[in-house]
Specification:
270 residues; mainly alpha; 0% strand
Length: 270
């Protein structure tokens, strides 16, 4: 308990480094633009397309965040060792690893697209004349299981986002077998892994909750709702300060991910 408190406080202490802020902020802006664009298409889409616009941005943003997480964790490691921080050198040394870790999202995204395609078949069956409504009622368990599978993939995505970047950054290796090892360790010791994940997410959840509440109240009071493109522009301009305020919480997330990796390594040796 005391050790997890110490690593939490240390990760929080180094969450406001300017160089890490300017490394992560552009990536968050890219993710924000992706979410705003998907939200724009979501407004006028049918339920099947909306399902993809809800999950695909999350997988793509996770890939972007994992890519940026590798140099962020290496910079944090240098901070702890009291070495001079050099973003350019860290990026140069991490380039291949960043490309490799981003590719880990491809199997998860492919699996989701298969689920989404099968979900589309259920929507087609539902619209068959005369019998479609009956088929949709009888086969309603199918879409339920497919959407449940999508949430399961999202959970795997989140676990990899937290536990994979420190493995790649500190071991200087990236391959799918490493991801499988990480997931197996989580299955064998779920309590400690989920405890560390929740601790890493805690500041992020608090800040996101406050920011979403503020953005929602702003939208209710000030947004012009007549045109889709107007709504999108309004969300785009809100997204920029949203990303800036979210950056320290995400820096902490990766700092704590690195601390958790070292903590688990030490725990395994005891």
């Amino acid at each position: 308990m005391l050790e997890t408190e110490a690593i939490f406080n240390r990760a929080l202490k180094y969450s406001y480094t300017r160089k890490k802020f300017f490394l992560l902020f552009p990536a968050l802006v890219v993710c924000g633009i992706l979410i705003v664009v998907c939200h724009t298409f979501w407004l006028g889409a049918n339920p099947w397309v909306r399902a993809s616009l809800a999950f695909v941005p999350a997988f793509l943003c996770a890939g972007i965040m994992m890519t940026v997480g590798v140099p962020l964790i290496r910079l944090y490691h240098d901070e702890i060792k009291e070495k001079k921080l050099s973003v350019n050198n860290t990026l140069r040394q991490s380039w291949k690893l960043m490309g490799g870790i981003a590719s880990l999202i491809v199997p998860i995204l492919t699996a989701y697209l298969v689920l989404w395609f099968v979900l589309g078949l259920f929507y087609l069956l539902k619209h068959i004349p005369s019998v479609g409504e009956t088929l949709g009622m009888v086969l309603s368990f199918g879409p339920f299981l497919l959407i449940l599978g999508s949430f399961f993939l999202s959970l795997v995505n989140l676990l990899l986002l937290f536990f994979m970047p420190p493995v790649v950054a500190l071991k200087s290796a990236v391959r799918w077998e490493l991801a499988e090892e990480v997931l197996l360790k989580i299955c064998h010791q779920p309590f400690i892994h989920l405890k560390l994940l929740v601790m890493g997410l805690l500041p992020l959840i608090i800040i996101v909750g406050i920011l979403i509440s503020a953005a929602t109240m702003t939208g209710m009071a000030l947004f012009v709702m007549e045109r889709t493109w107007t709504i999108s522009l309004q969300w785009f301009f809100i997204m920029i300060p949203f990303a800036a305020l979210l950056t320290p919480a995400l820096v902490f997330f990766f700092n704590f991910a690195a601390e958790s990796f070292i903590f688990l390594q030490r725990r395994a040796k005891k």
